[in-house]
Amino acid sequence: MLFFIATEKQPRATMLKILPLTPALGAEITGMDLSRPMSTDEFRSISNAMLEHQVIFFRNQTLSNEAFVAWGERFGPLMKHPAASKQHPDLDKLAVVRADETTRNAFGEGWHSDQSALPEPPTISMLYLNTLPDVGGDTLWSSTYRAYETLSAPMKQLVNTLSVFHNNLKPNRGYVFTGSGRVMHFEQPLVIRHPDTQRCALFANRLATTHIPQLTWAESEALLAFLYAHIEQPRFQCRFRWTKNALAMWDNRCTQHTAVWDYFPQVREGVRLTVQGQPLIAAFPDQVQWTKERPVAARLE
Ligand code: SIN
Fold it and tell me: 140, 250, 285, 294: most buried, per Cβ within 10 A?
């Protein structure tokens, strides 16, 4: 798809080219310099590409931290990411992501959507990497739209009625996140409706989902194990091979992602931004049997 853009203040013709990565999701966009102010037309094109492809990529971008923040703010108010290894000293919404020879658990490893235990999970996340290993360090995304849409009708009928608890300190692979000391434990719909596309998506992930309160523990464990395996199938995925100064931007409401930590002890480093979200919308609000616990947002400092 091509877009020809000319703005009044800065007459120029920008040719955006959008190259889909897989039928499920992902697209690489060329013909755009993210360090320059974005015109209204460009913003519309990028936003539409996000809605259609769910995760988009730009390569060879030369961005200062300030320019990256300015770009990110066009998509909504930014929030701090409490699980990132550290915040940037001057720009507190910018999180530094780094893995090196001292790393014991790399940030972002394991399928998840960002901060899914928050009452208002982030809409969009962006990652800009400037240091890469010689090979490896790819990131994979999966479409939770496709995962929902390919369930059988009886399975859809069941999941439409359920909620799920998410906890940001769920122990994973023998360690717990201790980043900010904030414990979030929140009941989300298992099937959500994206406010812009109106498409339905599954909202349960391996790193943060603890249980389905309407089921027995054994039923909950079995159904969640099935849903994780279903979501993580290659046919719903795309895989991005990073190059220096590439930027990825994804929608947490309809995707999950996992960072592949296969490059130890080499260094992979960059910065990321997170756009503040809204409460999630249940796809079938009249059918969900909420527990008495809802809403729960424990804050233990
Ligand atoms: C994340 O945001 O979960 C990390 C993604 C990555 O490092 O590729």
Answer: 250
- CA-nearest of 222, 213, 185, 193 to 290 is 213
Query: Looking at this protein, which amino acid is placed at residue 160?
Result: N
C-alpha distances (whole Å) from 107 to each of 43, 83, 127, 295 are 30, 8, 12, 28
Q: Which two tokens stand for residue 84?
A: 């990132």
Set 114, 206, 211, 230: catalytic member: 114
Q: In 3D, which of 113, 142, 152 has the Cα closest to residue 235?
A: 142
Helix intervals (H) in 54-199: 65-73, 144-149, 153-159
Query: Does the pLDDT at position 101 exceed 80?
Result: yes
Please tell me the distance from the alpha carbon of residue 211 to that of residue 96, in angstroms, as a whole number.
31
Binding site membership of 107 for ligand 1 (Cβ less than 6 Å) = yes
Q: How confident is the model at residue 144 (pLDDT cuts 50, 70, 90)?
A: very high
Q: Is the CB of 139 under 6 A from ligand 1?
A: yes
Count of all residues that appear for the chain in the document: 301
The pair of three-digit structure tokens given for residue 199, joined into one six-digit string: 């498409």
